[in-house]
Known about the structure:
Largest sheet of chain A: 7 strands, mixed
Largest sheet of chain B: 5 strands, parallel
CATH topology of chain B: Rossmann fold
CATH superfamily of the largest domain in chain A: Thiamin diphosphate (ThDP)-binding fold, Pyr/PP domains
Number of strands of chain B: 7
Shape of chain B: globular
Oligomer: heterodimer
Radius of gyration of chain A: 20 Å
CATH class of the largest domain in chain A: Alpha Beta
Order of helices and strands of chain B: HHEHHHEHEEEEHEHHH
Structural class of chain A: alpha/beta
CATH architecture of the largest domain in chain A: 3-Layer(aba) Sandwich
Number of helices of chain A: 12
Strand order of the largest sheet of chain A: 3-2-4-5-7-6-12
Number of domains of chain B: 1
Distance between the termini of chain B: 40 Å
Strand content of chain B: 5-15%
CATH topology of the largest domain in chain A: Rossmann fold
Number of helices of chain B: 10
CATH architecture of chain B: 3-Layer(aba) Sandwich
Number of domains of chain A: 2
Radius of gyration of chain B: 19 Å
Helix content of chain B: 40-55%
Amino acid sequence: MGAMTDGAGRTLTYREAVREALWLELENDPDVFVMGEDIGQYGGVFKVTAGLLDRFGPDRILDTPISEAAIVGAAVGAAMVGKRPVVELMFMDFAFVAADQLLNQAAKMQFLSGDQFRVPLTIRTQQGVGSGTAAQHSQSLEALFMHIPGFAVAVPSTPADAKGLLASAIRSDQPAIVIEHKALYGIKGQVAEGLYRMPFGQAAIRRPGSDATIASYSRTVHVALVAADALASEGIEAEVIDLRTLVPLDYDTILDSVARTGRLVVAHEGHRNVGPGAEIAARVGELGWRDLRAPIRRVCGLDIPVPYAAPLEAAWLPSAEDIAGAVRETMGSAVPPQRA
Amino acid sequence: MNLRAAGANPSRLDTYASLIGIRGFEERAQDLFSRSLIRGSIHLGIGQEAVAVGARLGSRPGDLVVPTYRGHAYALAWGMSFDAAFGELLGRVTGCCHGRGGSKHFADREKGILPGNAIVAAGLPIGCGTALADSVDKRDRVTIVPFGDGATNQAAFHEALNLAAVWRLPVVFLCENNLYGEMTPLANAVRIDRLADRAAAYGIPGDQVDGMDVEAVTGVVGEAVHRARSGDGPTLVEALTYRFCGHMPGDTEPYRTREEVDRWRERDPITIQRERMLRAGLDEGDIRSRDEAIASALAAAESAALAAPPPDLSDIALGTAEWMEWER
């Protein structure tokens, strides 16, 4: 995990790092408040917001009914008159219940009002596969928020990024969604003390390499690093890029890397069909095709719903071996495609 | 043009001027549309003006409104100028949203007019949010959220009324029951006679009012606004009203008879207010001179908007984040 630490500080879990960003922003600005289902007294189903109610009180930490459209809609309205609400959507899958408020309302109000009303709204949610939560609690839906103009989309892979990107989302005058990963809450990493904000649109190179580029984000970065270790033992040096935010997306770092390696694999949990990898592959094809020495490969969640049973779920998820296989393929090794 | 002096108790003549200003604006909008000068569609509330004007008079200057796509009346009642309104209808840079929104999305931050919302019932949760902000910041402000009868069957209606009730938010939910959800008769969409009865499901008051009588609306909305401002939470007000025009241009209106429309036209809110003024002894000449003043203000604003330039293409991404990529 040496490559995954960012800066000096203490060791915190991803969960604690998110909580620290909320805590510091709540202290920093009286207009910041947090709302969501079971986030106050209960502390959130992933315990991210534990302790906030005691410290900040019920006017700033609001337990809501199970009403995603009303929760997000109320946050949109409050944001339009100057508040900085942070909504916890318990599972990303529930975004569909609030889809109108997210994508027709929050994403469009500033534009359609001719820049009169801004919506400094932050959505915090978690997504992803890995604990048997099945088809309606495991989806990776970041592509929806990339497709509709309006939201910044952050997908932190480390505790330090989880804190810094959330703080930036809360300070942003535009809507932002910070998508955590349910399997990352317990991971540990170095996190700087105090309030800091990480700029959107700056990818991190988690492991340098000269032979192939793996672009990834969220939990899949960790899987890609395992793949890169395996490839290194075969003499293939893969560069692993952590995109950190998908909107805005740091194409420069990908293109610079591809200019050196000539090969690109995009790896993520979201479905392949019209997923983030499709857009990244298209852009690199448009802008960096002269540098490419092999077709771009995507390693993604399968284009079927997420299954429950452990072996099925594991087969659904892109593995380190899937990613390593895709890299080998771009290197011209005689390895058949992992996923037809 | 501000249709009424802010903060003052409006005279009946001022109230009447608000009504005829809105009516005149929408009749001109109809004409502009028929001449293909307005894009997309327009959703007029001809016949329903008393609900918007009554809502304005029942609230205080500074109170917020979250209108729908049938929202010209609320924008004008809340003080939007005819220039800004015609400019937006025509997609001009002088429009209230600089031509970004059009008829459905009139907005004016300074005047407390949130953007008109073209998704049925979406404004109700948003109105909960403005009220929530005022509630936690202890601001003495109320949010009025108008919507049609059709909105009462949306999930957002249920979620919003419940949330506002649970948190006792300073908001008034104002249902304009014009008997048709777009083109569908209300009787085909609900099994109750009084939509105000739905308030009982949330433990909040539900009142019904004659939506063709501006002074009646003012009174009932005024009580609801008072409750909201006093910390007693939301009210559902059902205003019984009628749109004399179709849901949109080209609506062939197979869902209602000419006789039904004519019966409602006998209760035209403008006629009701005009006759009330005459009965109270107002001089007919004063009324007529107000008619003329409004008509000439409308004509001047329409001409100015027609002469105004469209938005500059270089400014196409106005109101987007600096990091948004929009170049082709």
